[in-house]
Every structure is written in structure tokens, then in C-alpha cells.
Design a protein that fits this description.
Number of strands: 15
Strand content: 25-35%
CATH architecture of the largest domain: 3-Layer(aba) Sandwich
Shape: globular
Helix content: 25-40%
Bound molecules: S-adenosylmethionine, zinc ion
Largest sheet: 7 strands, mixed
CATH superfamily of the largest domain: Vaccinia Virus protein VP39
CATH class of the largest domain: Alpha Beta
Radius of gyration: 21 Å
Strand order of the largest sheet: 5-4-3-6-7-9-8
Order of helices and strands: EEHEHEHEHEHEHHHEEHEEEHHEHHEEH
Structural class: alpha/beta
């Protein structure tokens, strides 16, 4: 174990070249951006008296950061990990950071039973190895009205379509293995979490998502209302994609014909509504720096364009057999035509816009 720092805290963690589930205590420095964003999001929401659950806490670094970096916002924090070393280690980490332990509960339980035995939570962070599935039921059940559930999924092989059978089994949907795979994966994950929550009359609305490196992360806000659950489930459907001309459509049906004459390929069912609360993203951007700021400045551009999917400029150029223009020029030309347009964090060569494919193609062809 070495003493390391992240955010405003110091803590003990194993430092290994290869991060794996077999580590004595799990810590992945690459996930610091994931933790930074959770701190920034809660800070930007600015609610006080939060009752927080960190059921899969690892070294407890996220909990430590919440306690230290969200002063006055946390009424009670419950940190848990099934690892037998966790309670002693976490108490040591609290002392190291001079964090009073009076409003902190430390546990070493199976995560779902830890959640189920707890109070209602204003924030639950589900940050597992692989799929969050085993913990969704308990996390959704214990989410308070107006609460937020944050979910990480590292099984992107299933969600992004490398293993479609795994996606069918675990997420009850058809993935899409092309430039849209990460957005489609996140939308499939959102629907799965919404379906689990809907059983308990909880409507979960996405407020922030990001797909980064090897994982997907979604934050959903809870409304406890049966009628709202129905409205939310009505926004589940399919993304239809034409592999010949790259056109796409959203639909309630998983079949359809593209105007070019090619049958569409269908992905989903998935969440077809907005992925971000734009006002929240704006606030988050103001308080961020470093990698979080870089990511948020791109998400800020796409978060007010509630369109499913984006256009990959390089793929369009290779289809049209034209050289790749500057992205900034494509964006400026679309803006001149009165369209909403911005970069997308899902792809370095993508743009999100309300313009139809034909318009994007004709602009790219003219810019060549
Ligand atoms: C990806 S790590 C968590 C990382 C941590 N949230 C962070 O930000 O550093 C997943 C953790 O879940 C714990 N875990 C896995 N299955 C569990 C279960 N069923 N109950 C309790 N803990 C579990 C593991 O011991 C591991 O520490
Ligand atoms: Zn087509």
C-alpha cells in the first residue's frame, strides 16, 4: 500500500502496474475522472443534507472525496465494501484526512443487503466491476424521491456490441457495432436502469452521462410518480440505421426501410430522450478544471441538442469519397444554415446536429 493523493484527499491504496479485480483492495487511478465528475455534479446540484451510499467503495476514495470536497452538504455517508480489509482501511483513511466519523457509517456487507438495510438515499453510487446489474434492484428500491443514482458499467463489450448475446442477456436489447456504439450502449444501459426502477414506481430521468475509455457512466434523477413512469417508458424505442447511406431514424418498431431502398438495421430498445440536463452541464463546466473541464466543454456543446446519434465526418467522407474537411468548417456551415450543431464527446470525429444527413453530406461535399 502506498499513500497517494486525489482531489483534496490522501489515502492508502495498492499501486500496481496492472489494475485487476484480484487486487488486495481495489483502486484504479484511471477512474479519477469518473470520481471528479461525481464530485462536480453533486457540488453543482448544491443540495444539502444528503444521505449518501457508496456500496462498492474499494479503498473508499470516492466517499473520502465527498466528505472532504462537499463541505456542509452531507448529512450521513454510508461506505461499504465486501472486502474484509475495508472497514479498518477506511477508518484509517478518515483519520488521515482528519474527517470526523460521527456522520459516517462503515460496513463490510454484501452490497445489495447493505443498501436494503439502510435508510432511503439521496445519492447512491453503483460502481462495480463489470455490469451493475446485481446491484440495480436494491439501489433503485432505496432511492429517495428527488434522489440521484449514479451507475458505472465497465462491460462495454456487451453494451457497445462486441458481444451481442451478452447484451441481449444482460440488457435486454440489441446493440449497434458502428460509430454510434457508445451512445447506443449508454442509451441501452439507461433503459435497463429505468425498467428496474419502474417496478418500484420510480421514474429515473437522465441528467448527465459520459462514455470514457473503457466504461459508461450514467446519472439519473428520481421522480416517484406512477404517471411519470409511464411517460418515461413511452420514450423507449429503436434507433434504425442504414448501413448503405448512414441515414438513421427513431421508431417504435424494430424494422423499417431507408429512403435509399436498404432495410434499416435496428438497435434497441433504448432510451430515446435527452441524455443531459443542459443547465446542470453548464454549472458543472464552470466549476471544473483539467480533464473534467475538457470533457465538459464538449458535452456542453452537445447537451442542448436532443437528437439521438451523431454524424461521423470521416465516415461520411469515405462514403462520398471526398477529402476530410475541417470539423470547424462543417460546424460553421451548418450554423449558417440555422442548425443546432456541436461536437460530441462520444467520438473525436463526430458532430451532433439537428440537420438531416442529406444536408450534412451536401455541406461536406461542397467544402472538399
Ligand atoms: C470497481 S471497485 C470500486 C471502486 C470504487 N468505487 C472507487 O471509486 O475506487 C468494485 C468494488 O466492489 C466490491 N464488491 C464486488 N462485489 C461486491 C458485493 N457483492 N458486495 C460488496 N462489495 C462488492 C469489490 O471488493 C471492489 O472493491
Ligand atoms: Zn439508406
Amino acid at each position: 500500500m502506498k499513500r497517494i493523493s486525489e482531489g483534496f484527499v490522501s489515502f492508502f491504496a495498492p499501486v500496481q502496474k496492472v489494475v485487476s479485480a484480484g487486487m488486495a483492495v481495489f483502486y484504479n487511478p484511471v477512474m479519477s475522472l469518473n470520481r471528479d465528475l461525481s464530485v462536480i455534479l453533486l457540488k453543482s446540484i448544491g443540495k444539502r443534507k444528503l444521505v449518501v451510499a457508496d456500496p462498492l467503495a474499494g479503498t473508499g476514495v470516492r466517499s473520502l472525496r465527498f466528505l472532504k470536497e462537499l463541505p456542509g452538504m452531507i448529512e450521513e455517508l454510508r461506505a461499504n465494501d465486501g472486502n474484509p480489509r475495508f472497514p479498518a482501511l477506511f477508518r484509517k483513511q478518515l483519520k488521515l484526512n482528519k474527517i470526523p466519523s460521527k456522520n459516517v457509517v462503515v460496513a463490510r456487507r454484501e452490497a445489495s443487503s447493505f443498501l436494503l438495510d439502510g435508510p432511503g438515499f439521496d445519492y447512491v453510487d453503483v460502481d462495480p466491476f463489470g455490469s451493475p446489474n446485481p446491484f440495480l434492484d436494491a439501489a433503485c428500491k432505496k432511492l429517495s424521491r428527488d434522489g440521484i443514482i449514479a451507475v458505472t458499467a465497465t462491460d462495454t463489450g456487451a453494451l457497445a456490441g462486441s458481444f451481442p448475446d451478452a447484451c441481449h442477456r444482460k440488457y435486454w436489447a440489441e446493440p449497434l457495432r458502428n460509430e454510434l456504439m457508445h451512445e447506443v450502449g449508454i442509451r441501452i444501459l439507461i433503459r435497463k436502469v429505468q425498467l428496474i426502477a419502474s417496478q418500484y414506481d420510480r421514474a429515473l430521468v437522465p441528467i448527465f452521462v459520459h462514455a470514457t475509455q473503457h466504461y459508461d457512466r450514467v446519472y439519473l434523477h428520481c421522480e416517484k410518480s406512477r404517471s411519470y413512469v409511464k411517460a418515461l417508458l413511452d420514450k423507449h424505442g429503436y434507433l434504425l440505421y442504414c448501413e448503405r447511406c448512414m441515414d438513421r431514424a427513431v421508431s417504435n418498431a424494430n424494422v423499417g426501410m431507408c429512403s435509399c431502398g436498404e432495410p434499416f438495421k435496428a438497435a434497441g430498445p433504448m432510451w430515446l430522450g435527452p441524455l443531459w440536463n443542459h443547465a446542470l452541464v453548464k454549472k458543472m463546466l464552470v466549476t471544473s478544471k483539467g480533464d473534467a473541464e475538457k470533457l465538459l466543454s464538449v458535452i456542453h456543446q452537445e447537451s442542448h441538442i436532443p437528437i439521438v446519434g451523431f454524424f461521423d465526418i470521416h465516415k461520411i467522407c469515405s462514403l462520398l469519397k471526398v477529402p476530410v474537411p475541417k470539423t470547424a468548417e462543417v460546424i460553421a456551415a451548418l450554423k449558417r444554415k440555422g442548425h443546432d450543431v456541436g461536437l460530441t464527446h462520444f467520438s473525436p470525429t463526430g458532430i451532433r446536429t439537428d440537420a438531416p444527413l442529406e444536408e450534412v453530406k451536401s455541406i461536406i461535399a461542397r467544402l472538399k
